[in-house]
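Sat 14:20. Reprocessing the chain from the morning session after the first attempt stalled halfway. Input below, unchanged.
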Amino acid sequence: MFVNNQTFSNSKTRPQHFQSNWHVALFGLVWLAGGFAGSLQANETAAKVVSVAPVQSQLISPQMMVSGQVYSRYQSNLSAGVDGRLEWIAEAGQQVAQGDVLAKLDPTPLTLRKNELQAQLKRSQINAARLDKELARLKTLVAKQLISQTQLDQVQADRDLALADVELNRASLAQVQDQLSRAVVTAPFAGVVSQRHHQKGEEVSRSETLLQLVSLTDLEVRLFAPLAYATFIQPGQQLQVYQQQGQTQLQLSSVIPVSDVRSQTFEARLAVTAADANNFSVGQLVSVALPTASASLSTVVHRDALVLGKQQHAVFLVQQNKEGGPQVKRLTVELGQEQGEWLQVKAAVKPGDQLVVRGADTLKDGDKVRVLSEAEFALAKSKSTADTVAL
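Finished this time. Tokens:
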């Protein structure tokens, strides 16, 4: 009887023990699930880090795209300036510095002529010295009335002619010396030999072009546009130029508002700075944004604030939520003209509004955000650059 009671007692308590353990396990699972859900909710509501830029007002004018071409400001056809046989000439494609030798002519004929003129000069100097002494002697004799004044005047005239011969010979010698210097053609500026018109050993005349030298650093963009738009640009104005390496702003150096009956176009030139010279090549085609009307004050946003879409584009405006913290509002925009890093837009924004320029790709309407300060944004950019270099 005792044994049966114990057995019965154990048989009733064992299920209660198992049931208690099952309750504990179930409670633990519920607690973990609740914590996981809370973690997800916390992550979903966490503020996203962004950086912002203000909306601005700028003078914007309607523009049209015109084609332009890059030219060298220094493109010279060089000749020797003397006749002679070509001894050496630089190769096409050779880059030279200012003062480097580009061609040499045989100097032998000019050297012989120089020697001849030097001898003539020496002879005329000797003759002038002799007549000078003779004139001094005759002056003494005239004072003693031993010779007539006519004889003295004749010797003095001969002496003056001899001095003139000395000057003529000196001038002729200087001309030959100048021709000898022209027999060596040097580069008037740094550049590249683009064309070579003669070969070694050829006889060339003083007016024949030997080669063409083109500067690669002093560049300019030349464009032709409708004459009606000439009044909307002036020298010193900055125009946007688009080329293969991207876009840049160049200063308008000159406007030539002169046209003909057929073309009705005018020419304008933009100077390429030394810093931008490596991005342009002589002969390269570019596109230039040319104003076609007077500028008006427009609302512009930084190009990084724009979120591109298939049907429409948008920006994210930073506002204060009910709790007083920052959150974003998605606004659709219509794009207008572009001016450097800024875009003309039609949207429900005003100058001074803060738009997200970094971190907008992952945002949704109403998301909470944390706006980086200027110092934090600079640090983040430097760290990003360092990580990119390390990769």
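The longest strand covers residues 326-339.
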